[in-house]
Amino acid sequence: MLSTLLLIFKALGLTFKQLTIHLSLVLTPRLHRLTYRSVPHPKNIVIIGASFAGYHAARRLASTVPTGYRVVIIERNSHFQLTWVLPRFSVVGGHEHKAFIPYKGYLAPVAEGAYTWVNGSVGSVIVSDGDAPKGQGKVVLGESGEEIEFEYLVVATGAVASGLPSRVGVMTKVEGMKVLVGEQERIRAARDVVVLGGGAAGVEMAGDVKERYPEKNVTLVHSRERLLNRGYGEGLSRRALEGLEGLGVTVLLGERVVDGDHNLTGEVRLKSGGVVKCDCLVKCVGQRPNSGLVAKVSPLSVTESGHIRVRPSLQLADEACSRIYAAGDVIEVNTVQNARGALQQAEVVARNIVRAIKGKRLVVYRPNWWESATKLTLGLKKSVMYMSDGSAELIVSTKSKEELDSARVWKYFGLKPFNDTSKEKTI
Ligand SMILES: Cc1cc2nc3c(=O)[nH]c(=O)nc-3n(C[C@H](O)[C@H](O)[C@H](O)COP(=O)(O)OP(=O)(O)OC[C@H]3O[C@@H](n4cnc5c(N)ncnc54)[C@H](O)[C@@H]3O)c2cc1C
């Protein structure tokens, strides 16, 4: 009881902290514009990937870099792809465009010349040797072979998955909307849906499918004994189980699907020997860190799980790559990996690069207790807000809109929801 009260007070304190973070986000670029001057041939701070980690690092760096430096953002997708809404938009139609947020709105307030944007894919990273400062180097674009030199590099390449509902898996908005509509049709046509994986994406997906189509059989198969076992408390696991069973989802815990082609047999076989009818398998497992670029340049810095091994300053563990930093889903951290954590890591990376330029001592990243806070949908109408500081859990029932928080994220990135003035708009 006391620990819950303490958590409530901490959560209230957090509102104040969020306010100061917001104020700093608004004021910093304005102040920076007063002093920053664009110069010919500036030194580059290259960022690979502009999702939560990279895009935020870009905003922070472009609002704080000294004259003589500029930020170069290299992102392969045409739009910011909002993962949070993918399970919902894989089931419910009419909102697909809201998952694709035009880029650059978030960078609108920064000084002229403080950044440049490259729509492309980095194929390799080369670290200079010889007399060049340790870790300095260049990135090579995959398609054109163009080389871009860097003084500092931020790797924010995130994670990859086999497709929906964890990642869109294609690079343009037009293609992405088609992929979402295709998934909606696949689910609509199915009778027996099996969802693999009881993390947040699996729970949300199973709840949405069952509530949208109560006549379908929906089974969630999870290999562990409780849902949401990675990084979340038992209270949330119980609430998720009750929510799904209340909707009529069959939840199989401590079970695995073994190989077998459900497209041919119309069923999946379980490790325990059981069989579940299945004409639509939705995989919410197998997300992998996208660390291939770093694995080639510094095998030392990649763990067995494929995550990038970083120092507390978020520089690569490898001393030879001290000018390379990493943040987001691609790094190894001892906490839940989500957008909140990615933003915090991006803050530290941006601060440290500016501090390194100025010859100051680097700061360290320590995961904050509130980074694991999350909102989880349990079907189309209900959701819960969850927070835990390790001693207590706070779970508050909330209602959610069909489009979820997509409008809020558009506004956060400096745009009017859902006004996309870029050329590529509709299917
Ligand atoms: C279904 C789902 C729901 C979620 N819901 C929430 C939630 O409610 N709250 C929350 O906080 N978190 C949530 N998360 C987690 C959150 O989405 C991730 O933690 C977050 O996206 C990580 O951001 P990131 O920047 O590290 O990487 P990613 O989002 O994986 O993005 C990596 C970026 O790098 C780019 N890239 C990769 N390689 C290259 C290259 N070679 N060249 C150029 N660009 C490249 C990619 O195109 C991409 O834009 C959810 C995740 C999923 C899957």
Automatic annotation (TrEMBL):
Pfam families: Pyr_redox_2. One of its GO terms (molecular function) is flavin adenine dinucleotide binding. InterPro entries: FAD/NAD-bd_sf, FAD/NAD-binding_dom. Residues 44-345 form the FAD/NAD(P)-binding domain. It comes from the Eukaryota. One of its GO terms (cellular component) is cytoplasm. This is Putative mercuric reductase.
